[in-house]
Structure formats: structure tokens, C-alpha cells
Amino acid sequence: MSALPNAASPFLGFGRLLRRYGFAIAPEQVSGFMQAVTLLGPRSMADIREAALATLAPPPDRRDEFEAHFQSHFYGSTSAVVEGDADEETRIKDDGGADDQRIEAEHSQEGGELSSALEQLSTRDFQRDDDRLTAFQRKLPSALPARRSFRTVRTPSRGKLDLRRSLREIVSADGDVPSPLLRRRQTVPRKLLLLIDVSGSMKLHTADYLKLAHAIVQGADRAEIFTFGTRLTRITTALRIRDRDQALARAAAQVDDWDGGTRMGPTLLAFLSVPRFSSFARGAAVVVLSDALERGDHAELETAIRRLSARAFRLSLATPLAGDPRFRPVTAALRAILPDLDDLIDGSSLTSLIDFILSLARPAPAASTIWKRVS
Is there a single domain that holds both residue 233 and residue 323? Predict the structure, then answer.
């Protein structure tokens, strides 16, 4: 049997992707999909989409999910229309990096004047900063919350009997009974996901947030970084560059919506609509760096935070407004999302953020409990 041409790889990969997410796709359907694409030319991506719908036949109740998978797989930088006004579109920009696994009150009226739903595109340069994040980067791997993996490792005590290997040792020792071999489930750090607000109301804090994000990517084995304003951009790959100046310059070039408006609810919904992105949040410690000043209806923000909380191990909102001792979560948006937050903390300085992230492994009362006491 002759090898398939390289051009067939995306279509085979799409079939594997659907099967990985529970779609019933037979090999014959994938073959029919490629034949249909060949017959159609294809002249456009619309032809490929129609061929996929006709041959792979997603069930009606999973059609939206199928569309999201198609957009994620065939478009490197894709656009997703989420719930809200039909003429508003949240653009999603992926940095193209490989997956690590096979893989949100205002304390015064003036504080919300910079919050806007209008898109404003600009770029930014980052200047050299000192090495105050070095100690944080060194402590981070051991400070992150951990989970028990399904993989096991050998242990001299306090484990379960590895019966198969123990029997093998007995046979090799001619029936003598050696010390039993024990194994235990491995403990691995949880993923850390940062969602950074780069809108105009956050412009005084964005540079520090990006430096913190670089230290996190350098120190943690599995970390993902996204920026959002009027668009959503994944910048993890750029921040993997060891030199901070080069990494921040690369990230600055990728993000198009610096210091513009904010559509926090629709943008977070767009993040959750892409299966590859939403998988980053599953079982992770998720930290949203934003003032959560959502203009207009906050229903989409409430929906997005609720869904994000359901996926995450711990969901935290770090707002610079909480640096004011008079701050209270009294806006409609913050009151709506507070029950779904594990933490609502001060995000006004690097020191407070570093101390908080290094404490993620320690249990703490829910945000709603703490702020009811304060209020």
C-alpha cells in the first residue's frame, strides 16, 4: 500500500481529533471525506467544511461543537462568534505553539471611564526590568498545587504491592522470597493558566503582568498565558524564550489590542468555545488578571466565569482595584460572579501577586465568604 501524500495529513488528523472528543467516526467516513474533498477541488474552505458535514455526519445536538473543532483544526488564527450582538466578533489568535499535553467593581465612578467596548489597535515596547522575579521563578515549581497522576513510580515503603514485578523477582531468585516491590501513584504539579486583561483600564499594570507571566512560563512545567481585550491571543510560545526582553518583544508583536476596549464576557466565552484552549483550564489553577469592569449587560461574563469555574481546580480573580482598602465588590458584574470565584485578591502589585501564586497550594476560604466578612 502506497503512502498517503502529505496533503492528506490535515484531513486524517481531523478525523482523529473528532474521535478523541467522542464523535463516532469510522475509517470509511474519513476516507469518504478525503474523496469528497478531492472531487470538490476544493476551491475554498467552505467546500472542505461541506464535505466534512456530508461525510462525517455530526449529530445535530453536537453541531456547534463540530464547528468549533473544524475552526480550531483548519484555521491557525481563527475567528469565533460567541453569544452577544451578532455584529460583534471576538477574534482568537493562536501563537501556533505545540500543546503541552496530547494534548475576572469599581471603587469609584472615575475608575470605569477607561473601560470601553470599542476596539483600539496599538503596539507596545517593554523596557528592561530588574531580576526581582528570579526567586519567584525558582520557588514556583514546588509551590504549585499538585494532583495524583495515574502513572506510578517505585517506592521503598508506603505503596501498593507491584504483584507482577514481585512475581518476576521470585522466579529469577529460584523461588526465594525477596523484599516485595511497591509502587505508588505519582504526584505532579497542576497546570497554571493566566488570562491577562490588556484593555485601556489596565494599561498601568500590563507590563508587570507580562513580566510575571514570563517568570511563570520559565519556572513551571505546564503553564499557559492568554491576553484578552477585544480579542483573545495565546502568547505562551513567545514567553518560552529565555531572555525576558526578547520574549516580551515577541509577545508585544503578537497582541493587537493593547490599551483598547474590553469585552471580557464574550472573550472568555470565545476561549471556552475552542476545545484545545478550554482543555488548558481543566483541572488547572486559573488566575484572571483584570479589573472586571464590564460595560453593559454582564450576563455573558457571568456565564463564562461559571463555565470556567466548573473546569478549573481553582479560579481566582486578581483586580488592581482591590489594592484600595475601600474596595468592595459592589458592581453588578462582581456581585454576579463572586459565588463562582475561589479567590478575589489584590492585583495592584507584583509583590501581592507573587505571594498569592506561591500560596495556591494552601487551602483558603471561598471569595464570597471572605468578602461577606469584610462588607
Answer: yes
